[in-house]
Write a structure and sequence with these properties.
The protein is an alpha+beta fold. Helices cover about 20% and strands about 30% of the residues. It contains 4 helices and 5 strands. It is globular.
Length: about 200
């Protein structure tokens, strides 16, 4: 076998554990507003909140996962995405506003003295409860499952198991086990749009 260049600096692969679906107390690592293009040439914004698990067996999960990545374009995978309401009064816009308000209320209730002032950068370091659900992905003919942040809760709701366990989200066209579609399932996010965050 021919010697591999830079062998002494190659990191050995570590065991990879998929984060189980469920509720977790999380710490916000950073937050930003990102703008996206629609197919019809319009734009929309999302509040993207990078989080890591703060308590329990999986504490530091996303930091460890980030450190394991050996590519130059490392990506922080624990990102909770919320659509920013446009103010158009549509059902989808009202749903986006309600989901954002729930997140803000849960962050305020989880951090004594914190009050939302429309500066997303001040979310860094705050605690929030989140449920994570399993979502099926497909890329280049391959499929699999990943676990993504799904719904905000207070940290006390998570600690006391007062949250609704989210159902798995299979690929479109594949039946879910007795799952009824909900409005939030209609609003899609891209599989491969995880973004790097400074943490």
């Amino acid at each position: 076998m021919k010697a591999i260049n830079n062998w002494d600096n190659v990191k050995a692969s570590a065991d990879f554990t998929v984060l189980p679906a469920g509720g977790y107390v999380c710490r916000i690592q950073g937050a930003k507003i990102s703008e996206y293009q629609t197919r019809d040439g319009g734009t929309f914004e999302r509040l993207e909140v990078a989080v890591d698990i703060e308590e329990g067996e999986y504490k530091g999960y996303y930091h460890q996962e980030f450190d394991r990545q050996q590519t130059e374009d490392k990506k922080w995978r624990g990102v909770f995405r919320l659509y920013v309401p446009s103010g158009d009064g549509s059902d989808q816009d009202n749903w986006s506003a309600a989901k954002l308000k729930r997140f803000v209320n849960d962050v305020e209730d989880s951090n004594s003295g914190y009050h939302w002032d429309w500066d997303e950068k001040k979310l860094k370091g705050k605690l929030v409860g989140l449920t994570f659900r399993r979502e099926e992905w497909e890329y280049n003919g391959k499929t699999g499952w990943k676990t993504n942040p799904f719904q905000a809760y207070t940290i006390e709701d998570i600690r006391q198991n007062k949250f609704q366990m989210p159902k798995d989200k299979p690929l479109k066209g594949k039946p879910a086990a007795a799952a009824q579609p909900k409005f939030e399932d209609v609003v899609e996010t891209n599989v491969d749009d995880d973004l790097p965050f400074d943490y």
